[in-house]
């Protein structure tokens, strides 16, 4: 199990010159074939022979004492970036991929549906790309309160008794979005949230689906067509996305450490999963098996 990870280099191969034992790194947890057409085009996230962490039988997860990965999929952490923060490079890369898919431009408005780790990370990258107005959407008051303090975004709580169209209209009115938002990033996978995202967009706006939910949902295809929306799927991350994630961490663009709610020892991993299942905190982390370096993995 585990694909969001950082660690300390234990050993390197004879051809590796940019890393050495003892270096702290963030890990990009997938190994593409590097030879198929998608890989050669730079879209290695679409490689059919990808070996991704925690996807048995191809690859073990990162929640282990040792994890073997090609050296160019390890990103050295600057001295001021902790291993805890290094774990957040992976969700930041997911966010970078989503924001780049919808082509956020300076001065645009962006609605982000879902205020978990991915949604919050999307708000950071959208701000980096120059978004003027960012609206975070969630059903949980605590998450919306956190989002406001985390990245100074506007927030919106949908009415469960209203239709997606009604919620979209109210969101547009309350946030003075005129004909609608320029871009919407859906980070929940919820059918009603997906529909709200489509209805909140202006004509010609851009939509990206980065949250995963049910494999089949009802989709407002008429609204999509009449507004001539640019609709995108998003799967993990590809060329350049981890570089953006590392830039966010290195330049301290946002208080990423504040996303980390608790850190559990490996032996207490079931407690971490249960806390996450119950919606406790934003990001719960688990120390790797046998890791006991308190100087590098301190409790927050």
From TrEMBL:
Entry keyword Signal: no
An example Gene Ontology molecular-function term: D-xylulose reductase activity
Catalysis performed (reactions): xylitol + NAD(+) = D-xylulose + NADH + H(+)
GO biological process: D-xylose metabolic process; L-arabinose catabolic process to D-xylulose 5-phosphate; sorbitol catabolic process
Keyword set includes Ion transport: no
Alcohol dehydrogenase-like C-terminal domain residues: 118-250
Domain Alcohol dehydrogenase-like N-terminal: 1-78
Protein family (similarity comment): Belongs to the zinc-containing alcohol dehydrogenase family.
Function (record text): Xylitol dehydrogenase which catalyzes the conversion of xylitol to D-xylulose. Xylose is a major component of hemicelluloses such as xylan. Most fungi utilize D-xylose via three enzymatic reactions, xylose reductase (XR), xylitol dehydrogenase (XDH), and xylulokinase, to form xylulose 5-phosphate, which enters pentose phosphate pathway.
Record's protein name: D-xylulose reductase
Organism listed in the record: Exophiala dermatitidis (strain ATCC 34100 / CBS 525.76 / NIH/UT8656) (Black yeast)
Lineage of the species this protein comes from: Eukaryota, Fungi, Dikarya, Ascomycota, Pezizomycotina
């Amino acid at each position: 199990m585990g694909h969001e990870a950082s660690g300390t280099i234990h050993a390197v191969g004879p051809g590796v010159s940019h890393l050495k034992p003892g270096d702290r790194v963030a890990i990009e947890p997938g190994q593409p074939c590097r030879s198929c057409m998608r890989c050669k085009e730079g879209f290695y996230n679409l490689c059919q022979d990808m070996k991704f962490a925690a996807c048995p039988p191809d690859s073990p997860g990162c929640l282990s004492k040792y994890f073997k990965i090609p050296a160019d999929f390890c990103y050295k952490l600057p001295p001021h970036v902790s291993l805890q923060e290094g774990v957040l490079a992976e969700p930041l890369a997911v966010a970078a991929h989503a924001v780049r898919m919808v082509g956020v431009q300076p001065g645009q408005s962006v609605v982000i549906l879902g205020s978990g780790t991915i949604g919050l990370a999307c708000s950071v990258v959208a701000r980096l790309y120059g978004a003027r107005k960012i609206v975070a959407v969630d059903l949980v008051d605590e998450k919306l309160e956190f989002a406001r303090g985390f990245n100074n975004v506007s927030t919106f709580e949908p009415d469960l008794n209203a239709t997606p169209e009604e919620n979209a209209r109210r969101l547009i009115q309350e946030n003075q979005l005129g004909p609608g938002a320029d871009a919407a990033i859906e980070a929940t996978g919820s059918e009603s949230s997906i529909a709200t995202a489509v209805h909140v967009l202006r004509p010609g706006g851009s939509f990206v689906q980065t949250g995963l939910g049910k494999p089949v949902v009802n989709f407002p295809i008429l609204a999509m067509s009449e507004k001539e929306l640019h609709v995108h799927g998003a799967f993990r991350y590809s060329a350049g996305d981890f570089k953006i994630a590392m830039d966010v961490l290195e330049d301290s663009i946002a208080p990423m450490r504040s996303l980390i709610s608790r850190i559990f020892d490996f032996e207490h991993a079931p407690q971490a999963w249960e806390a996450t299942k119950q919606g406790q905190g934003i990001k719960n982390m688990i120390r790797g098996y046998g890791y006991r370096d308190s100087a590098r993995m301190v409790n927050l």
